[in-house]
Amino acid sequence: MQRNNILFLVLLVLYSGVVSAANAVPKKRVKTVGPDRKKYKELQADMKTVASASAVRLAKESVDPKLMRRERERSHRREKVKERKVAFDKARKKPRTILVNKDQIDTKMLDKINRQKRLSAKEKKTIDNIELKTYRDLRKQGVDEVSNTKQSKMLREYRLRNKKRRGIFRKKESSMAQILFPGVSPEDYMRGEKVWIYTDLVESRLTPVPFDVYDLPGYFEEVETRWLKKQRLRRNLGSRLLGHDLKPAPFDLQVEKDMPCTVFGKSYIGSKELQWLRQLVERQYRVHLQLDNLPVLLKSHDLNFALRGYPIGFKLPDDKKIYLYNHFKFTVTYHEDPTTFQGVRITGFEVHPVSVMHDAMGDSCSGYNVENQSDRSTFVSLEKELGQTPVLFSYDVKWVPNEDIEWSDRWDVYLVGSPDDEIHYYSIVNSLMIVVVMTAAIASIMVRTLRNDIAGYNEIVDLEEGDDETGWKLVHGDVFRAPAFSPMALSVLVGTGSQIGVAGFLAVILSVIHVTNAMNKGQMLTSLILLYVFCGSIAGYISSRVYALTKGTAWKLNTLLTATALPGFCVVMFSILNIFLSVVNAASSVSFLTICVLFILWTCVSTPLVFLGAFVGLRFKGIEVTSKTNSIARIVPDSIWSTAPAVTAMVGGVLPFGAVCIELAFIMSALWLHQLYYVMGFLLAVGVVLVATCAQVAIVMCYLQLCAEDYRWWWKSFWNCATGGIYILLYSIWFLTSRLKMVGGLPVIIYMTYMTMISLLFGIFCGAIGFLSSLWFTKKIYGSVKLD
After folding, report:
1. How many C-beta neighbours within 10 Å does residue 39 have?
2. What is the pLDDT of residue 453?
3. How many angstroms separate the most distant Cα atoms in the chain?
4. What percent of the chain has pLDDT over 70?
């Protein structure tokens, strides 16, 4: 038995050896590669891990339906990138001539419109006339521009067609959603999903003192829980300084689910709260809410207007009594298209406030028929005898489908009635005309006068005649003499102005390329503050270079003043103003933590960067002057009154102010009248024109001054452009008296404080541009002549 086993093993070994030898001799020279056992085992282990994880996930989803819902929402968000492109392409493909019927134009013109071809000037004029006639006919028929009907949508698109055109040479149609919020995709909501209304500020055009909704006496009750706090939108530094704090409102909204009259708050309004509410109603305060980033609208179809927010109360013209709104009828319009996306998209958010005295138990709050009655006794009257009467606050919600209004068109109603973009074009053209005139003047100086003067001076053709004709050559030994009055202050102002200009231009450029969005509350202010802080090295560099040119030695003090002078002044003014705002419990009062953040940015970031820039500026070789300074100063001849420093400074500041005055009106309306401002491209163009205007004004003024043998151009070149800030301040006073109707002393103080700070920043920036331009000009002309 053992022999047989041994023989079998020997035969098996021989057979395996023969098979392996046969396999080792290849018939063809082909290299075979077998699997890597180690990698194969690792791959199997990974597959088992993935399979087990997916099994666990599927098991959880089968148990918890919330996880399945989240997975569906994630998949929907992935598809929104493609859907957004399709929606914006559809918006761009809409024909411009929306108010022209097919029977009103010929076949050739209709074919051009359908194929999006260019129209001739005659065809454009014909279509414009037809559109204008159709628009007037529809308005005479009573069609308003704020409803959600198809005709109202057509009227809105006709009014906003210039705003929806984007491009310089060949303009293309776009949607307001793409213009206001570029890159933002629509949010899809499923049926029954809970959506949140967020409370914003309570503001008024009559006063810049806003309040929080939950701080109002006798108003909404605080219902925020720990989970709701997580739902708050994150605030940036700018929104904290402006007081914007979006909190979930105490309204229960579910998609496509109507909500009948529901009581959400009960308040006992005392005598102090009653007096405070009466004051708020008289000052026309409005409550602002948001749903899906849409501000709530109060519409009037008869009067054809739509306003953001709703008033706290009202006062009848023939009655001195003040009444309170305590019931709110919300209407949410939505659009759904199963072929394009899943769920619904919110396209409108409206409110209709009602004043109704509910009974103590709230039995009168039922259904959807709560309306303002003709009987004034049913209103909630804010009188003294009602000081201890409980007031019930209620609301109802209706979801209305609308297939005419798409998500890309939902912002159209907010911009109806706003100024047309053509006014911005006129502003730029007005500024460009100033630049053209100044360019012609400088060209005349540089090409004709200076060229002849320099050629004659170098050739020494006629010395006496040259001196009579070009007096600027006589002061070559004093033109770079340091100013007698505070060279340090001049260098500090020039460095600070350069920092302001660079930070402002970078902030506008970031907004133009859609890194930031001016429509997002506080985002523009945040970018301005952070960029100003990080541009501290520019201020230190330029200030140190200018101070070294004046042969100054106290560079440490100069750098310290550059880092602290303007921020310190603004902090002091802001802190004093914040005390008054805190006393009246305004929403714009800044917390102690925010002040600490600003102080850290100033002391730990901005100041070290200023010293770093000054160190780099002092390490480099100083600014080379093109002529030596005489040891004895030349006597400046007497000048007439028209060339006095005060006169030339006030005259020079007119042109920089004129370059921005039209655009300034829009910015002021956005700041104090709560209007929308989003045309950052126009603002950038106006800024470029402003810089060119300041430089040209400074150069012309400096040349005329040097021709009068006055070499004291240092401070004069700064003030010749810096006085534009004085005109900004005077314009703000006119704006206060003519456009604004502020009530009370504190609103006026707030307005003048902020406008004084803005005017100061504008003046320092323009002055810095004027000085640097004059410095370049003097170096250029005196470097072109041969001096002993």
Report:
1. 9
2. 62
3. 139
4. 78
User: Which residues on neighbouring strands pair with residue 195, listed in sequence order?
Assistant: 253
In the numeric block, which tokens belong to residue 387?
């000081």
What's the gap between Cα 511 and its chain centre? 7
CA 68 to chain centre: 38
Q: How confident is the model at residue 72 (pLDDT cuts 50, 70, 90)?
A: low
- The CA distance from 328 to 694, in Å, is 53
Residue 667 predicted with pLDDT over 60: yes
Angle made by CA atoms 600, 605, 607, in degrees to the nearest 5 = 100
CA dist 688 and 693 (Å) reads 9
- Other beta carbons within 10 angstroms of residue 282's beta carbon come to 14
- Say if residue 527's pLDDT is above 80: yes
**714 CB burial (10 A radius; 0-12, 13-18, 19+):** buried
Torsion sign across C-alpha atoms 194, 253, 674, 241: negative
- Which secondary-structure segment (H or E) carries 180? helix 176-180
Distance CA 711, CA 705 (A): 7
What is the C-alpha separation between 532 and 539, in angstroms, rounded? 10
* pLDDT tens by residue, 731-762: 999 999 998 888 888 999 999 999 999 999 99
Q: Read off the pLDDT of residues 675-692 as tens digits, 9 standing for 90 and up.
A: 888 888 888 988 998 999
Decide: 349 and 295 in contact? Cβ < 8 Å.
yes
Residue whose token pair is 């026309």: 284
Rg, C-alpha atoms of the chain: 36
The pair phi, psi for residue 269, each rounded to 5°, is: -90, 110
- Helix H, strand E, coil C: the string for 650-670 is HHHCHHHHHHHHHHHHHHHHH
Quote the CA–CA distance of 751 and 736 in Å, as a whole number: 8
Q: How far apart are CA 391 and CA 413, in angstroms?
A: 34
